[in-house]
Structure formats: structure tokens, C-alpha cells
Amino acid sequence: MNGDEPGEMPGGGGPALAGGAGFNDRPANMLICALAARDGNAILSVSGELDLAAGPAFLGYLKRASDGGAHVVLDLSGLRYIDSTGINALLNAHAKFARTGRRIALAAVPPTIRRILGVVAVEDVIPVFPTVEAALESLRNPPNGQ
Fold first, then answer.
1. Over 13-79, what HEC string results?
2. DSSP 142
3. What distance in Å separates the CA atoms of residue 107 and residue 80, rounded to the nearest whole number?
4. Rounded CA separation 132/62 (Å)
5. pTM over 0.90, yes/no
6. What is the Cα–Cα distance from 33 to 57, expressed in whole angstroms?
7. End-to-end Cα spacing for the chain
8. Is 91 helix (H, G, I), strand (E, B) or coil?
9. What region does 129 belong to: left with phi over 0, alpha with psi -120 to 50, or beta?
């Protein structure tokens, strides 16, 4: 490691850190997911950056969250960044869930992320709720027309 590789600090000081100057010492582009169950549904809390580098890990967590046929609420309150890879992962997950009669909902989406999702019309496909509790309440009721 000589500092010339992507993700490395110049001079070979190890992986680049987000925040700079030691203010926020964590690896850049880190995605953190936590899984919980409530009311027979899965809640997947997503923090950090959902991008090309984090896509495979996110899909793995999402698969684990959906094991057993549960509906899934994605708590995005800690999400700082999403790119086209992350957006496609959300849309593909929605399509897969719909084919199997399950639902996915987004909750507590930060304003900057919500603007991005609005621009690409994700909110027209996947329901977005202000809180995890509101999303869970929506999952207790069948979708309109069923």
C-alpha cells in the first residue's frame, strides 16, 4: 500500500477515512445495517452510504430480512448517500417482493435522500412513511384493492 490506490490515503497511511482530521474516524463509504423483527415484520435499519461498493452487502442484508416471508421496512434515517446502484437495489427488491406477495416500505428517509428518490420517482413505486411505526401500521393492512 503506497497511497496510490483508490481508498488509500496519500503516503500509504491506510484506508481513507470519512470526516477528515479525525473528526469522524470510520472508513469512507461504510454501510451499516441492523436487522430487527417487530409485529411479524422485519425492520432493516440502513446507515451510511448505499452505493456501488455497498450494494452486495445491502442485498445480503435484504435477503436475510426477507427470509421467512416477512414484509420489510427499511429504516433509512441514518442513510447519508445513495447512488443509482442503491436506487436500483430498492426498485429490484420491491419488484421481487411484489412477485411473492410481500411488501417493502421505506421509513424515516432523510430530506436529501428523499429529494433524490423523488427526482427518480421511487416514491411512486415504493411507499415512503415518516416513521417506522407508520410503515408498520401500513403493513398491518392489506394494500388497496385486496
1. CCECEECCCCCCCEECCCEEEEEEEECCEEEEEEEEEECCCCHHHHHHHHHHHHCCCCCEEEEEEEE
2. P
3. 14
4. 16
5. no
6. 9
7. 57
8. helix
9. beta
- Name the residue with cell 436500483: 88
Provide the residue type at 37 as one letter: A
Residue 11 has pLDDT above 50, yes or no: no
Alpha carbon distance 63, 33 (integer Å): 12
The angle, 0 to 180 degrees and rounded to 10, between the axes of the packed helices 55-66 and 84-99 is: 20
Cβ 107 vs Cβ 131: under 8 Å: yes
- Specify whether the CB–CB gap between 33 and 44 falls below 8 A: yes
Residue 75 makes CB contacts below 8 A (sequence gap 6+) with 43, 44, 45, 46, 107, 108, 132
DSSP annotation of 80 reads E
| Spatial distance between the Cα atoms of 19 and 30, rounded to a whole number of angstroms | 12
What is the tens place of the pLDDT at every residue in 41-95?
Answer: 999 999 999 999 999 999 999 999 988 778 999 999 999 999 999 999 999 999 9
Q: Which amino acid is at 29?
A: N
Length of the chain measured in residues = 146
